[in-house]
């Protein structure tokens, strides 16, 4: 019998979906970035690119909580994520947050250190750069206008490299076909929260080993944002390293297999 992939955790008056697979002894918690459509709708597709982790780790991919309202902040997301992890009995986890998920992960590692063993931040930021405000602000505007086609096209254009978008753009548009008004309203709540992220003071509280991954042509959060996270962590004595992928854009984590190989190497190191 095929094992159920998507589950729901209920705690503190809210529900949160997550996908679970792998058989390894240590939990690897993945907090995805902004998504026009919930990653739970394509959870099956997560297993192939993360297959290299499944022997050493049990993977948990989390969606955001189901019920959200305007004003829901990145720090709120981290609080709810901590509650969900505790409800599942998870602690001392390998934590990988990408883009907005990395913003959430920073709050988690700073405010709930008992939950995090090692931290990986992929193409994230501690404070919105002007470029981020411009790009994600446009996504929010399109979502609130219920311009699904415009949102999908802008999302693909801004996140992926030109060669990747040229090769897979049509497939990505099909994946996001017929985005509902409800999905766009939900997306707008999350994208709006990116404007107000500020983890700078909390970075000094992150003491676990941390890997910062970035891309030199990131037109969403910018490579400078990742560099600032690394510099701040290093200055406060956190064991950390930075890997900058030259020539790639924001979605390097989806485009380049070596991105995940680097994560596995980091987690496997003593």
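^ Assign residues to that structure.
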């Amino acid at each position: 019998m095929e094992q159920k992939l998507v589950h729901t955790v209920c705690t503190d008056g809210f529900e949160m979906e997550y996908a679970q697979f792998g058989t390894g002894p240590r939990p690897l918690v993945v907090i995805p970035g902004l998504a026009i459509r919930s990653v739970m709708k394509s959870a099956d597709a997560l297993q192939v690119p993360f297959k290299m982790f499944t022997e050493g780790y049990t993977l948990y991919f989390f969606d955001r909580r189901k019920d959200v309202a305007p004003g829901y902040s990145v720090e709120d997301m981290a609080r709810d994520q901590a509650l969900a992890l505790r409800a599942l009995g998870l602690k001392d986890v390998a934590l990988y947050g990408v883009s907005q998920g990395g913003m959430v992960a920073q709050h988690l590692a700073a405010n709930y250190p008992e939950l995090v063993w090692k931290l990986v931040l992929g193409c994230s930021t501690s404070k919105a750069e002007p470029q981020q405000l411009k790009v994600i602000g446009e996504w929010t505007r399109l979502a609130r206008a219920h311009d699904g086609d415009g949102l999908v096209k802008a999302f693909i254009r801004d996140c992926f490299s030109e060669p990747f978008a040229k090769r897979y753009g049509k497939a990505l548009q099909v994946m996001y076909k017929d985005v509902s008004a409800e999905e766009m309203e939900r997306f707008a709540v999350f994208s709006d929260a990116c404007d107000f992220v500020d983890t700078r003071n909390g970075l000094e509280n992150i003491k676990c080993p941390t890997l910062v991954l970035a891309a030199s042509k990131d037109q969403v959060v910018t490579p400078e944002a990742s560099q600032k996270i690394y510099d701040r962590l290093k200055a406060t004595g956190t064991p950390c390293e930075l890997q900058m992928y030259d020539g790639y854009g924001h979605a390097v984590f989806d485009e380049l297999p070596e991105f995940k190989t680097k994560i596995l190497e980091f987690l496997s190191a003593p």
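Residues 130-144 form the longest helix (15 residues).
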